[in-house]
Request: fold
Amino acid sequence: MATKPESPITLVVRRGALRRFNKLQKDTRNLPVVVTWDRRSAEPADAAATPPEGAEERRKDPSFTWELADFLVVPGEANTDEPLPTDKEDE
Reply:
């Protein structure tokens, strides 16, 4: 029975957490893990963050790792086939 190849896990690192980003890249280089920067340029404004009337709020509370360790884990199944931008592409 052939097993399905594992999709890489993605670790999204908070902007500005350079030490965390470098450490995660170094520690996961031999694992099926993709380390990338948070692509958001800023948090949404309060007015823009309010969903229109009748719409449900889609955002969830951030993961505990986002608050404590400046990164979050995205399981492999949630990834798309499109490559994620790296820190070099943000420049």
Q: What stands out?
A: The chain has a mean pLDDT of 76. The chain is about 20% helix and 15% strand.
